[in-house]
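1st attempt posting a full record on here, be nice pls
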Amino acid sequence: MRTSGILLPVASLPSRYGIGCFSKEAYEFVDRLEEAGQSYWQILPLGPTGYGDSPYQSFSTFAGNPYFIDLETLVKEGLLTEEECDACDFGDNAEYIDYEKIYLSRFKVLRKAFERFAADDVYDAFVSENGYWLEDYALYMAIKDALGGISWSEWPAELKDREEAALNQKREELAGEVAFYKFQQFMFLKQWKALKAYANEKGIRIIGDIPIYVAFDSADTWANPVLFQFDEDNQPKAVAGCPPDAFSATGQLWGNPLYKWDYHKSTGYAWWLLRLAHVFKLYDTVRIDHFRGFDEYYSIPFGDQTAERGHWEKGPGMDLFRTMKETLGDLPIIAEDLGFLTDTVRQLLKDSGYPGMKVLEFAFVAGEDSDYLPHNYDKNCVVYTGTHDNDTLQGWYQTLSEEDKEMTKEYLNNPYTPDEEVHWDFISLAMRSVADTCIIPVQDYLGLGNKARINMPSTLGSNWMWRMKKGAFTDELIKKIRKTTEVCAR
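the predicted structure (as tokens):
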């Protein structure tokens, strides 16, 4: 069935308190998706973020971001007052997130709610059902806070190495803080489940995102060092990234620890199965980030300052996905197969049966017949005008060379479109393609320039900040989106 949807990170929703969350504006966005005839809302990872604010560098692959807990709902539940929320400084720019102010204010007000919260059977059931990750995460965060936020690799040896007597002592000393972090996760999941249920009732399915890697400074690595390529001191032997290419002469140094795939295989991929089962409780469809890393992954010596000395090593390939299908069933997965693709990656995608991704912004290079041009698609793919890692359509188009811009006009067969309206030509091209699913970032529907870009890979300081203005999704725009959707039989 031909379907379409819109990409908008939760953090980019308009809301009252500085960052998008599970507030009434999220429910209103679901309503707008339904009115526009859409089938999907695609979001970015929901995990708690640390330094750099990237949802792809989370303190836990299982936990949720406490910034997304709606304070207005807590007011309605009697856990906060409006005056307490309004007294906090969450920033005053409706278009950009001030993460420093969010960090300094959000936990203060959540702590007030926690102090008034009374555990009940529902909460106790949540703690019991999620104990396999929640206990380690809550203790990790409590210890981390007590030690000034430093990475677990810098903790005292008895805590870094998880000596049981030391952990028990900290569980007792920090019992209140551990409970505070469990409370945050309870509220996060309670509110997210309610929002997802509302979306599903409206016919909107959620596409979530699972990063291939976890952050080094995370509860996942601290609690399960055996899963990763660590030495006897629990330091990484090598880290993840991408080799040098036309975009970066020194490559990309992500710094994430690499998996010890032979160990994962020996356990029947037990941790990965837990991880996948967990995210499918949160989402209806899952986009697996950096799919090519399951075929071959780029290994960079730990301590290197660039990615230049890295090399490729074999990943688990179909053995992992075969095990997933045998254990969890044939799950709805999207493979993020972007970047330089080898024949073995293409074969892995084919063998898995998962739809890959096609990005129009990658298609238009004068003189090249790119795989990203729609006439080269088969149906089993998801087409995007761009992703969270790309510029907006308008921003991208303005930077094209004259030769590439001329190619786009010839391909679109519409040389008369003014530049300020050209995003609609690309949206229509994506919607008309044979791809089973079409996802358009909300910035492209709004025709916004590069100031609305979500992320520029390998940079720090100005990413993950953009927010949609309240009221940006006008009735006129909704009607236009719906008409385009219906004309293209989506």
